[in-house]
Amino acid sequence: MPAPVTKAQRAAQKRQNPVCIWLTGLPGAGKSTIAQALDAELFRLGRHAAVLDGDALRSGLNRDLGFTPEARAENIRRAAEVARLMVDAGLVVVCAFISPYRAERRFARSLFAPAEFLEVYLDVSSAVCEARDPKGHYAKARRGEITGFTGIDGSYEPPQAPELRLDTAQLALDACVGRILALMAEGEQRAGKH
To answer: Is residue 77 within 8 Å of 107, Cβ to Cβ?
Structure first.
């Protein structure tokens, strides 16, 4: 039986360092928008990447989960495990999840080697996010139609030491993508690869 293909071999074949870029922040902070723009730029650069988005996972893999703290923790556990498998396959994985609790994000980080996990905190006020309200969830939460909504009556624990902090109220989309790409390049230089 042949030896299994290793993560290092898969990365070498793709000529890239596999990494999980974990975007976290309040609803409306810009996680999905940045994830899609970053994915498009990575594709343009010839990188092999994939996006894991909270809404997309909740319509498939995690559709059996609600929004209790326990269900949210399970949602992030499953997402992190999928991201780990994708990094093991040599991919750049862009994860867009509110992931409101530090413990969930610590768990996600624990699945990866230190250089393989980059936490990017979209640090923008709840007032700005509520003004954007792209899905109308803040309005529903204000009317009492949604309970436990992060940013209204559900808590969010900001990262204490993210690898990158982006204020999406001040930075343009292309600037956010550029800073994430620069962070990735720094990690690659430290690793002495590519």
So the answer is: yes
